[in-house]
Amino acid sequence: MFEKSLYDLIRGLRNHKGNEKEYMQNCLKECRSEIRSQDLDLKATALLKLIYLEMFGHDMSWASFNVLEVMASPKYHQKRVGYLGAIQSFRTDTEVLMLATNLLKKDLTAASTTTIALPIVTLPHVITPSLALSVLPDLLPRLSHTHPAIRKKTIVTLYRLALVYPETLRAAWPRIKERLMDKGEDSSVTAAIINVICELGWRRPHDFLPLAPRLFELLVDSGNNWMAIKLIKLFATLTPLEPRLVRKLLPPLTEIIQTTPAMSLLYECISGIIQGGILGSGEDADGREEIASLCVNKLRGMIMVDGDPNLKYVALLAFNKIVVTHPWLVAQQEDVILECIDSADISIRIKALDLVQGMVSNDNLVSIVSRLMRQLKLFSSGDSNAANHRGGSPGDSDEDDLEKTIDSNPKPSNQAPPLPDDYRIDVINRILNMCSQNNYGHLVDFEWYIDILTQLARTAPLPRPISDIDSLSLSGKSNEGDISERIGDELRNITVKVQALRPACVRAAEAIMSQLNSDAPLRHYIVSGALKPVSWIIGEFCSELSSPDDTLGTLLQLIPKTSSPESLAACLQAAMKVFSIVAGDQLSSWTSERKSRITLLMARIIHSFEALALHPNLEVQERAVEFTELLKLTAEAASSQEASTETIHQDPPLLLTQAIPSLFAGWELNSVAAAAQKNVPLPDGLDLDEPINPNLNSLLASAESISIPVNEADEFDNYYYQRPPATSIASEPAISKLAEPREVVGSYQQPTEETYLDADILAKRKAERLERNRDDPFYIQETGSIQRSSTPIHNILQNSNGPDLDVDSIPIMELDLDKLSAGVDHSQSQASLKPPRRAPRQKIVVAADENLGGSGVSTPRNYDSENNNGSDAVVKARSKKLKQSLLGVDSTSISALSLGEDGANSGRSGFDPEARQREEAEMAQAMKEVERLRLEMQRANERIQVAQGVDAAGTVVKKKKAKKPKVVAAEGAGGGDTAADGDNNGASVKIKKKKKKVAAIDEGDAGSGDVVVKPKTKKKKAKPAEIQEAEAP
User: Which of 112, 125, 229, 942 is the most exposed place for a label (fewest CB within 10 A)?
Assistant: First the structure.
């Protein structure tokens, strides 16, 4: 009588703060003893406390039999506790579940409504195939119960049974359909049926097409928003099967979109229109455009609702689907979509990026990219220039790391939080994809794009730094995921494809390389992947360099700071190419100044290259050794060649002017399509499995046994395993480390270039713009700028009369132009007064990728939006959806269940996996038998053809001999008596063949009675019979 109730347990748990675990253990001990009591009230109370403790993670599966005892209680309040315990603790593998079958069947047939509801609610949580087979006959009559709540719960429970035992639908579907067609049915029951049909509809939508009239009636007349949402989802799966539904659904869907205040119903209606293919259907184009415009306007309103990020997210999801069919409508909402790019929610930003990437065009490319560039510049974490030398030097110490930590000053409180590197990399990737889409089809100003690439190379996040030379990759591969390398590759593509922009691209490459060199202090490695493509551009198009000497000096400074073996190899190659331009001038005389300058330059290059002769990467080592030996040979030739004097002319060494430049002169390198390599035919006699050297194993074994001298081993150990001494780095003044205030741009319009480009890039663009518009009379020059060739009248007056002349004081006189122009021809003067036309913009030609025959499109697609992933992605997503339902049960078997009459008569064997395997095996055996019979018939036919004069290859042997009687018979076609005589002589076979051939030739003979009769005897089936009769005697 002093047992604790559930309220006492909860109250005691709250009173034992900090000691809850011990208190729960004591309560569990009490429950274990109380639940074994014979008193059902005490047992039910203990079970209720166990259910509460089970929600804290304590196992109560040991009390499953006691749960069954409480379930069998005749009192409802105790029985309800027992069923609640079954829901919480019973699983499909619970042993006492089979003992509960009779209890469930008994309670399903009880008279009380509350008692019937208990097993109906419990069955979805504990159902198994055997239990479903047992309770199905008792559950189906509950569909006709007088209480609508029982009918509603039964329908939902039958769906859960169908997921485990699919044959449930075959027995229950006629009654469910009857409940749906009943217009007097309770709305809650109808809503439950619609929920079940919606879940089944995407698996087998063709089974529910006959219900379309009733479903449409419910959509129009029902006032339940949740039922309307389910009906719209169901119609979205039915419209692809029945296109006529589109015209029927447009008026009610339009009315719902225009009138409903519920955002959930509005979004589901728009989503159903998109998924149902109504926007992309070929019928009723006017109505389709009207509904698309209405959907876009409503989605714009959802985005503009303040304070609800969920509405913005779902609106962007719908926009991403509409942009596939109506990109021009989505592009009109550019202002609100670009506002979402600066949202504080990162998921909204990602969806907005997906959307702008799909709606980009020639008109809005610059505005979209400018907005993204401004975001990257404003929200960049830290100084991007200082990030270029994040790679530590071999001499870094703990004190240096501590100094770096102390130098990092905290951000101001009013500054926005920095963007994560993953998001910045994603934004840069999308910028590159948008600009390079369709072989740069949307790009209008290539010079602007080159400046964008230069700015991106400065602000791009760098990969993980390489702090030690021991961690260099021997394979020569750079770090994966380096976005700066892709920026450099994009600049290289522009340089190769657009020949007119090569000087500008080379200047941009020089600027990037100079920036990398200036930002990396001494003994700090450069980890930016942009160095490799930039070095390649400078080396390949070194003839476009403005100052090759300075560029060569920058390359030689970058070589000791480069960490990536790929970038180092590219720098070595570029340095030699630039040197060939600097020293390979054949027109300049070989003076003493040139000789000394070239000699010193070669000595500097040799000094830089010799340090890489033992580099662990073989590519770098090979290039360094080859170029070093070549330059040493060239240096000897240059020192032995006498310099020119005033009387004697000496030519430069041929190694400088011809040999070295010829190494890099040849065919121009063009871009190659990605699929072209697969179409290159393999040469004859090439065996890739054959070893290069038959004695390779012995050579490798001998190489391992070679002993290394002591001094060489020490040098190797010092080079690879000993760190050079640490060097101190001068610290910057504290004032230079203060963060600049962030500029806030409140306008959603296209931002100016000052917001996302650096000062040097802006100055260069301004100088180019002034030079381009120098002679343009419609361009207002700045003060102190270069004067135009056409001097203004104001300057002429000032130069003639001095600075004291006041032009405004000159009196105004009336001038009658009509009198002056009388009798004067102004045709020539008007022609001369026409403003000069602006020089046409330089035509940019983007070269296509070189390709081999049969390799398909020359330029692969650079961008596939989320909505253009192809049918494969849709099929994969649909198959994944089929495999898993919301309840975590494999429901693939339902998709193979037909609800029609044919499926009802097919029995249950269709869902038996063993029967299905037997049917497949029988089908395979039958196919083999059919193939065997076909081959036998083909061989028999070949034997018959050979017997009749046709060889095995199918060539007619006696065809030429058969043509000769045709000509003779045609000449004597009028003699029908001969044919009759032939019949009497017994030559029936040959004569009948002649008669048919003669009849085919002599169709134009008039008055011949035989012509009318012969076509009737012209039957293929009669020929073999007559031949057999002729051969029988």
Answer: 112
